[in-house]
Amino acid sequence: MSDILAFTIFVLIFTIGEYVAVKTKANVDVVLFVAVVLLVGFWVGLPKSIYEVSGILPMAGIIITLLIVGMGNMIDFAELKRQWKTVCISIIALTAACFALVFVGQFVIGRDYALAGTPVFSGGTAATVAMKAILGEKGKEYLSVYITLLLGLQSLVGIPVSSQFLKRAGKAFKNNKAEFELYRHAVTGELTSDKKKLIHFPESLNRPSFHLMKLGAVGVVSYYFSAILLKLTGINISYIIVALIMGTIFTEIGFLDKDTLGKTEASGFILFGCVIILFSDFATCSPSDVIALLKPMAFILLVGTFFGCITGAICGKIFKVEKNLAIVMCLTCMYGFPATMYLSKEVAEVTAENEEERQTIENYLLPKMNIAGFVTGSFATVLAGIFGGML
């Protein structure tokens, strides 16, 4: 197999996955589709050397770092402040559910499986990328197949459950006349900020290559900061976690523009690379391996969903947020964006009786869902660093 053929096969699989995700409104997302195709593909004869031949694997560390820095770059503190209840519910409910998973899981499926699987349940792709990097550093690659399979399957549980609760939340909002009127004329979308930054670059440098260089530079700072911290203090924090924090800091001071990843004009390739890299372990994964992992995966998905619903409902009561919506805020950890957007739009469509109602319900649900998905994904990436350090 030539390198260009191997690469093109990966691109074809990913492209079909994106098409399926759009057609199914993310009920079958890209990650799940790619996972199934590659897993079955290797079983029926897809060459196990395709990853090495395609040239994807040597770029894994670079692509992952750029993605995590880009995630930190997207944190909008002004929007987080406006949606403070969403942020609090998402973090508190998810934290409680995660520690319940680890506490119970160590007795049912074993400590390593509980610690490795919980961050994946909590934050999807980003947390899985971070956890796989940490497992590689610690020489525990045997857990990589487990968390990768878990990532591929969890949207199958999270999306249908969330859809039911979100429909109830949409109906409750529609019946709450006072709150419905409040959101009738709400405007969604990105708000610009006039806050002055410490660093400014001339407009002539506003080029894709310059933005890509800046992401790389922050990645370099993150890598060496992590190494120096370990040498001086003995504290071992994965540079992947540092990259998330540095992405936020360098955005606040103006070194990174908002949506720097998008401005590189390489965001599609980076996302493609990260998803494909996730499943490199499938080349050596047999059907018996999958069967052996069914118990820990079922435990994480079922027990995690149960505790997510319980803790979300409790937090909703504490913060005076509609119970069903609070539950879904926690469960966004299982799929994230863009499924949060598709679910919000779908619920608004089926709940409303006319276009004005549809827009109003969407104005109410969409910002909360997107913020919840982003917060849980970012939080879980940090959680991966903490739990990864305990393995």
What can be said about the biggest beta sheet?
none
* Distance linking N and C termini: 38 Å
Fraction of residues in H or I helices:
over 70%
Q: List low-confidence stretches.
A: 187-192
User: With helices defined by DSSP (H or I, 4 residues minimum), what is the helix count?
Assistant: 18
Shape: globular
Number of domains: 1
On the 0 to 100 scale, the average pLDDT is: 83
> Which class of secondary structure composition applies to the elements?
mainly alpha
Tell me the strand percentage band: under 5%
Order of helices and strands: HHHHHHHHHHHHHHHHHH
Structure explained in plain terms:
The protein is built from 18 helices and no strands. The radius of gyration is 21 Å and the shape is globular. It has one domain. It is 76% helix and 0% strand. Helix 4 crosses helix 10 and helix 8 packs parallel to helix 17. The protein has 391 residues and is mainly alpha-helical.
Task: Summarize the model shown.
The chain is an all-alpha fold and 391 residues long. It has helices spanning 3-23, 30-43, 50-54, 60-73, 77-82, 84-108, 111-138, 144-175, 177-184, 208-233, 239-252, 260-263, 267-278, 287-292, 294-318, 323-331, 339-351, 355-390. The protein has one domain.
Give the helices and strands, then pairings.
Blueprint: H1 3-23, H2 30-43, H3 50-54, H4 60-73, H5 77-82, H6 84-108, H7 111-138, H8 144-175, H9 177-184, H10 208-233, H11 239-252, H12 260-263, H13 267-278, H14 287-292, H15 294-318, H16 323-331, H17 339-351, H18 355-390
